[in-house]
Specification:
single chain, 128 residues, 3 strands, elongated
Length: 128
């Protein structure tokens, strides 16, 4: 009889702790999935000038879709400025909320490589 009373107290407590830990694991998993999708989106947008904001938001939604456990509706707003790309993501479920932002400077690697080649050509011409 004594073991039944102890089990009636310990088992629900154990299940509660297990459920809370499982929710925390799912929360951190979803946060990492959303963060990596946001980083990929700005990385793609920073290297190419021909992407539109709608294309990048669609890319973000495609990267997140079906990969989260707790948060089903994730919104991402992309903003392209003169020298950087920024995405702001937000989602919520009950009292839990994930809000993050990723940004990256826009680069033009082709022009950079061309300018380095021109500098090398000028240096080679001056040496000869």
């Amino acid at each position: 009889m004594r073991y039944t009373i102890e089990a009636a107290i310990i088992v629900p407590l154990f299940l509660l702790v297990f459920g809370v830990c499982l929710n925390l694991l799912f929360y951190h998993h979803d946060k990492n999935v959303i963060g990596s999708a946001a980083y990929e989106t700005v990385a793609i947008g920073s290297g190419r000038y021909d992407y539109e904001v709608d294309d990048m938001e669609g890319y973000f939604q495609k990267r997140v879709e079906g990969r989260t456990f707790l948060f089903s509706k994730v919104t991402g707003q992309v903003e392209m400025k003169d020298d950087k790309v920024e995405i702001t993501c937000e989602t919520r479920k009950g009292i839990m909320k994930i809000a993050l932002s990723r940004q990256m400077c826009i680069t033009d690697p082709e022009d950079y490589i061309r300018s380095i080649r021109k500098i090398k050509e000028i240096q080679d011409e001056n040496i000869l």
